[in-house]
């Protein structure tokens, strides 16, 4: 169950990272409230995951999921660059996440 909690925490991290773009510097109330709520969900599920997983592994995977998802959605939603070097670096993050899952 800890891995499920960690996955939910990682997906929630993507949500709040993308949500920050919509808050316009926390000047828009509804996106700000939603972003803060998703932040809380992310941290709560990370806390549940680290009860049973090594902290370093859980934190690295949590941030890796968040980074990967945020970059992909940034490319898709905000037309951020998707050049080859950037995509290769994202691939390295995926390799790291998979490696940590295999040893954790």
TrEMBL record:
GO terms for biological process: xenobiotic detoxification by transmembrane export across the plasma membrane. It comes from the Bacteria. The chain crosses the membrane at residues 33-50, 57-78, 84-103. GO terms for cellular component: plasma membrane. InterPro entries: EmrE-like, Small_drug/metabolite_transptr, Small_multidrug_res. GO terms for molecular function: transmembrane transporter activity. It is found in: Cell membrane. Pfam families: Multi_Drug_Res. Keywords: Cell membrane, Membrane, Transmembrane, Transmembrane helix, Transport. It is a multi-pass membrane protein. Its main location: membrane. Belongs to the drug/metabolite transporter (DMT) superfamily. Small multidrug resistance (SMR) (TC 2.A.7.1) family. Gdx/SugE subfamily. This is Guanidinium exporter. It comes from Gellertiella hungarica.
């Amino acid at each position: 169950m800890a891995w499920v909690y960690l996955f939910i925490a990682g997906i929630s991290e993507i949500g709040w990272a993308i949500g920050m773009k919509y808050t316009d510097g926390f000047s828009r109330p509804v996106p700000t409230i939603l972003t803060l709520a998703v932040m809380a969900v992310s941290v709560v599920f990370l806390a549940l995951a680290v009860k049973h997983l090594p902290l370093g592994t859980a934190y690295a995977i949590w941030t890796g999921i968040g980074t990967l998802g945020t970059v992909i959605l940034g490319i898709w939603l905000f037309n951020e660059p998707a050049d080859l070097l950037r995509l290769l670096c994202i691939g390295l993050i995926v390799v790291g996440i998979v490696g940590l899952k295999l040893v954790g």
